UniProtKB/TrEMBL annotation:
Pfam families: VC2046. This is Uncharacterized protein. It comes from the Bacteria. It comes from Paraglaciecola hydrolytica. InterPro entries: VC2046_fam.
Amino acid sequence: MSASNRYSKQDIVWSCCLQNVDSTPESGSVFNEQFRDLEYNGELNQATAHGAKFALLLAMLEQNSLLRPTIAKDEDRAEDKYQNDIAALSFYRSAPLAADQQYWSKVTLTENFIQSGELENAKLWLTMHPEPLSLYNDALHIPEAILENCALHVRERLKQAQQKQFEQDATGLYDILQDVAPLHVAA
């Protein structure tokens, strides 16, 4: 008696499909869902030649694609690797965004190098201790000297922009509510 006579075709398909999918994790180990997924391990691709098995595996897939395991994109990995490589190549500090107290204490040393004619030492010092990119870490801060040299319409536009910005006062609402509350009590 052959195997096809004892078992129906559907039973054979079920046993072929479930031998890899229903394997249980070993005790004490974390079962990796990614290898169980039919799309990633190639099981679904191999079943395309067998109609019934393919239909069964397709029906067994998780319908919600958000719950399926995903593999990180190669672009993300490449970008992270690139950033790590660049950071590893940098031996010196990057330039700070704004001047702080520590910078002002080191300015005199740089000034002394330049005044004494030790330009090579000054270059080395500035490479090891870069100057800040700006005095203020504020994109909206424009020095007065630059504002005075701007055209009239630019100055007026900047004044209008500053007038539109208002300070929020959280206690102001409380004061307004206190003024309104006695009116409702008296009524």
